[in-house]
Amino acid sequence: MKDMSLAAKGHDRIAWAAREMPVLSRIADRFDREKPLAGVKIAACLHVTTETANLMLTLMRGGAEIALAASNPLSTQDDVAAALVEKGISVFAIKGEDEDTYYSHIRAVLDTHPNITMDDGADLVTTLHTERLDIIDDVRAGTEETTTGVIRLKAMAADEQLKYPIIAVNEAYTKHLFDNRYGTGQSTIDGLLRATNILLAGKVFVVAGYGWCGKGLASRARGMGCQVVVTEVDPIKALEAVMDGFRVMPMTEAAKIADVIVTVTGGLHAVNAEAVQNLKDGVILANSGHFNDEIDIPAIEKLSVARRMRRDFVEEFELKDGRKIYLLAEGRLLNLSAAEGHPAAVMDMSFANQALSIEWLVNNASGLEPKVFSVPEEIDRNVAQTKLESLGITIDKLSEEQLAYASEWRSGT
Fold it and tell me: What's the start-to-end Cα distance of the chain, in Å?
């Protein structure tokens, strides 16, 4: 943890975020009364932000003992980390930590012998499975927050290496339809503008990947006046992008015309060595997927004759032929490295799913196989209903007659 003198600022920012998180607040109040997590040790590897802080405080009010590490070396908000320590939560996270420190923090969290893991990217779970099998019998279950982590965990399960059940919070409708789309869309643009202060209007903006994060980012870039191009490997998603009004082409072609390229695929080298060869002078490269593997940074380094920092989070690479490429935030999560991550209002639903999934696992994990599971539908719907109520919005309910009609097969034309 960097500096305890930052705690006061952290408390203020955590309280500000809480104003936009009414669903989590209602859960916290119930947890405080019922203590459903009493005696449970939780090891969390998440982005240490104001929104995450409110989730940690909710779990603590439920009776849990928590140790928290960062899930990305650049995503920690140091004032938040200090404030959480003052609240009684063990935090191992410093913005800008190197890789060795990053993994030492994950190991420190595992040293608490947790019963539940909470992960964002699956680094905690994979470290546990590869280095700390001696404590794995203490772990009952876990949750995973993001697409990249879910992919890794499903691969572990397919290889029969996953030792306990994990709920993929990312798969909840109230997570990926809102957090991934509206959260990533807005926060990535925020990070891009904070890092560069460029005018987006008129720029050719390439979005690599048209999943829910890509949909949100493409929509927001178009709203800023950009000419948006989408690259995809999935023909269905590519067709959807076309019908949403975007140009679609291979990355090697898009690289020739792009002013800005942002990757949100969750995969490897969406901007590969061939695309790097085609990049035009002055292009800005960034990533909002979980790992910086989405951009082939070694290929850029191999072609470079010089590199220097131009601004905070903006590194200039000068290529042998004189072209300049600008890489933002080391290719790491732009929205959390150069900005503050998703707005609290959208994380309210994601973290409500986290809190309720933890509670559900404490009560039900013993009957589950070591696989990746979706968020129970009743939790997902409860989160949506509570969010609507917090916004003062009511919806219709089916009458008995309508319910009967919906289950009747005899009536027809």
Answer: 68
pLDDT, tens digit, for every residue of 378-409? 999 999 999 999 999 999 999 999 999 999 88
Helices assigned H by DSSP within 62-134: 78-86, 99-110, 123-131
- Ramachandran region of residue 96, left (φ > 0), alpha (ψ -120 to 50) or beta? left
Q: Which domains does the chain have, with CATH numbers?
A: 4-175+343-390 (3.40.50.1480), 182-337 (3.40.50.720)
Q: Which residues are annotated as a binding site for substrate?
A: 49, 120, 145, 175, 179
Other Cβ atoms closer than 10 A to 369: 9
The DSSP string of 116-165 is EEEESSSHHHHHHHHH-GGGGGG--EEEE-SHHHHHHHHHHHHTT---S-
Q: What are the strands, taking DSSP E only, across 209-347?
A: 227-231, 247-248, 260-263, 283-287, 304-311, 314-319, 324-328
The pTM of this model reads 0.91
* Residues 329-379: tens digit of each pLDDT: 999 999 999 999 999 999 999 999 999 999 999 999 999 999 999 999 999
Summarize the annotated binding site as residue ranges: 49, 120, 145-148, 175, 179-180, 209-216, 232, 288-290, 335, 342
Q: What is the DSSP letter of 352?
A: H
Buried residues in 32-51 as b, exposed as e (16+ CB within 10 A): eeeebbeebbbbbbbbbbbb
Q: 342, 179 in Cβ contact below 8 A? A: yes
Known binding-site positions for NAD(+): 146-148, 180, 209-216, 232, 288-290, 335, 342
Round to whole Å and give the CA distance between 329 and 342: 17
Number of CB atoms found within 10 A of residue 137's CB: 10
Strand arrangement, sheet containing 41-46: 90-92, 65-70, 41-46, 116-119, 141-144, 166-168, 372-374
- State pLDDT tens for residues 155-195: 999 999 999 999 999 999 999 899 999 999 999 999 999 99
